[in-house]
Amino acid sequence: MTKHIFKWAVIGLSATALSGCAMFGGSGGGRGTDTRYVARDVDTLYNAAKSRLDRGEYKIAAALFDEVERQHPYSPWARRAQQMSAFSYYLSGDYSKATESARRFLSIHPGNKDAPYAYYLIALCYYEQIGDVTRDQKITEQALATLGEVARRYPNSRYAADAKLKIDLVNDHLAGKEMEIGRFYQRRGKWLAATIRFRTVIEKYETTTHAPEALMRLTESYLALGVPVEAKKTAAVLGANYPGSKWYERAYELVNKHGAT
Q1: What is the C-alpha end-to-end distance of the chain, expressed in Å?
Q2: What contacts 17, CB < 8 A, 6 or more positions away?
Q3: Contact call for residues 186 and 218 (beta carbons, < 8 A)
Q4: What is the pLDDT of residue 190?
Q5: Residue 144 and residue 84: Cα distance in Å, rounded?
Q6: Average pLDDT over all residues of the chain
Q7: How far is CA 171 from CA 80, 106, 133, 209, 217, in A?
Q8: Are 118 and 86 in contact (CB under 8 A)?
Q9: What is the pLDDT of residues 100-128, one digit of tens each?
């Protein structure tokens, strides 16, 4: 979904080649050769990992970057390998390990210049796991919180603009969940419960694409509850904000039908 957006962000982490190194993974260098624990110099090990990453073998790359950190913890390349490991796990779809690696980096290097990238990667890991509106939205809430953290901590970073865009998309998704539940209650005649859900959309997610329908559904619910005055007020708000929408036309027809004009 978004993996292409920030590949450029790791160019600075991985593009600089280490000199005088032999790559693993050539002829006779299978996966077992690359990843088994063998003491190797940092140049060879890091470039073996980078080679696997470039070839799209993300899990193998992540394991090798982890080896750089494990075998050479005090090397200048250990910090770089931590971030490359997290990035490789992310590309492989192992969001749990990617998050773990990024959080470990932040715990060791909280003030590092690459900290914004680590926070952004964690946010993307949650964002990539957002399911449809019929499922539990815990991951969606985590995505919203971590994206907000990126925008709050690093408002001038290269990641803030994309984080803010994704926040809008996540809010739209959460509003969609409220609408799904509200319509469910409506179908079962639970009008008060439906009203609560639609009001949540209007009050908490008023800038999302679901706001016009929420106002119309709220108008429906108020009429069903026998409070035409509130229905009329809601329809008026809908008309003032979305005068040309199909939802206003439906709300207007409903209010007229029930004599609430």
Answers
A1: 47
A2: 47
A3: no
A4: 97
A5: 24
A6: 86
A7: 34, 27, 12, 10, 19
A8: yes
A9: 999 999 998 888 899 999 999 999 999 99
DSSP the chain: --GGGGGGGGHHHH-SPPSS---SSSTT--HHHHHS-----HHHHHHHHHHHHHTT-HHHHHHHHHHHHHH-TTSHHHHHHHHHHHHHHHHHT-HHHHHHHHHHHHHH-TT-TTHHHHHHHHHHHHHHT---TTS--HHHHHHHHHHHHHHHH-TTSTTHHHHHHHHHHHHHHHHHHHHHHHHHHHHTT-HHHHHHHHHHHHHHSTTSTTHHHHHHHHHHHHHHHT-HHHHHHHHHHHHHH-TTSHHHHHHHHHHHHTT--
Identify the pLDDT of residue 109.
Answer: 87
pLDDT digits (tens, 9 = 90+) for 182-223: 999 999 999 999 999 999 999 999 999 999 999 999 999 999
| CA 219 – CA 229 distance, rounded (Å) | 10
Residue 49 in contact with residue 83, Cβ under 8 Å?
no
Q: pLDDT by residue (tens digit) across 230-244?
A: 999 999 999 999 998
Residue 64 is encoded by which pair of tokens?
Answer: 């090798």
Domains of the chain: 1-129 (1.25.40.10)
Q: List the structure tokens of 140.
A: 């969606």
The two structure tokens encoding residue 247:
């939802």
Q: Closest Cα partner for 20 from 51, 50, 49, 43?
A: 43
Look at residue 30 in the predicted model and tell me its pLDDT: 45
